[in-house]
Amino acid sequence: MKKIMFGATCVLLVSAAASAQTFTIPERIERLAAKARDAVNITLDGPLLQLASQFLNSSNSDERVAKDVISKLKSIHVRTFEFDRDGEYSDSDLDAIRAQLKGPTWARVLESKEPGERTQIFVKQDRNELGGLVILAAERRELSIVIIDGAIDLKRLSALSGNFGIPKFESR
Amino acid sequence: MNPLDDELRRALRRVDAPEGFADRVRARIEATTAVARVTNSGWVKTAVALAATLAIMAGGTWYRAEEQRRAQGEEAKRQVLLSLNIAGNKLRAIEMKVNHREDR
After folding, report:
1. Does A40 touch chain B (CB under 8 A)?
2. For residue A130, with 0-12 CB atoms within 10 Å meaning exposed, 13-18 middle and 19 or more buried, which class applies?
3. Rounded CA gap, B87 and A73, in Å?
4. Distance (Å, rounded) from C-alpha A55 to C-alpha B69?
5. Across-strand partners of A137?
6. Distance (Å, rounded) from C-alpha B92 to C-alpha A170?
7. How many Cβ atoms from other residues are within 10 Å of residue A135's Cβ?
8. B74 at the A interface (CB within 8 A)?
9. Structure ipTM
10. pTM here?
11. Which of A17, A86, B7, B59 has a 20 to 30 Å separation from A93 between CA atoms?
């Protein structure tokens, strides 16, 4: 009986730790901004997402979809860097992020390697729905990291691209 | 004498004031002066000025906080839209790349 109780406690602790996971962007990634020609640095946690939601206009169809998408999110981290030269970062710079995706709930669903390019997509399984998404896209002169924590619909997210009157983000 | 003179004389004839009229007038003047003394005293003026200053300061603080919240909200909204835009574009680009590779 004691063994069963201990096992159940362990399972509860592990699942609680997994659901309470917060991502940290390694310092060596943050330092890449100094070398980059162009960089985007966005970190939005729960309170900021709630605040943004209040300013998204429900009468605008695009913003309504965005509002709906972020309503179930816990946090968003985006880092993109564009460099003038090759070799400004190394693939190992991303290891600290990959290490945070080794829990039982995270699974790598895509791995694509070509000369000078590596793309990985990880998803978090939260009960029977997608509980998070991480995109690591590394090219010779471009590095993109997208971490979305929370329930997300990939089809809706994909359909959102190029909307909102935002200049389209160039991704090769 | 014409009738108008008679009428004027009747209207302007001397009439004695009712008894105690002068005392009542003096009492009322005194009471009014006392109220004026209170409202014109220094501490009331200071209190009114202080209350007005506090009200203006509170209004200013609220307005600044509201402006700051609005600016933060607009910036958060911009970042949300940009994040979703980047994520969506990356997903589409990866999808296209994978599909293209499968077609080859």
Report:
1. yes
2. middle
3. 14
4. 11
5. A119, A144
6. 11
7. 21
8. yes
9. 0.79
10. 0.70
11. A17
Q: What is the pLDDT of residues A23-43, one digit of tens each?
A: 889 999 999 999 999 999 999
Closest residue in chain B to residue A157, using alpha carbons only: B88
Tell me the pLDDT tens digit for each residue of B20-72. 888 999 999 888 887 777 666 788 888 999 999 999 999 999 999 999 999 99
| Number of cross-chain residue pairs from A and B with Cβ atoms under 8 Å apart | 109
**What's the rounded mean pLDDT across residues A121-144?**
91
- Return the pLDDT at A156: 77
Residue A78 Ramachandran class (φ > 0 left, ψ -120 to 50 alpha, else beta): beta
Q: Say which of A40, A56, A146 has its CB closest to residue B77.
A: A56
Q: Please check whether residue A63 is in contact with residue A56, taking contact to mean a CB–CB distance below 8 angstroms.
A: yes
Yes or no, beta carbons of B90 and A144 under 8 Å apart: yes
pLDDT at position A7 is 56
Instruction: Using CA coordinates, name the residue in chain B closest to A66.
Output: B81
Q: Which of A80, A157, A164 sits opposite B91 (nearest CB)?
A: A157
B73: nearest CB among A55, A70, A161: A55
The token pair that represents A117 in the structure block: 């390019």
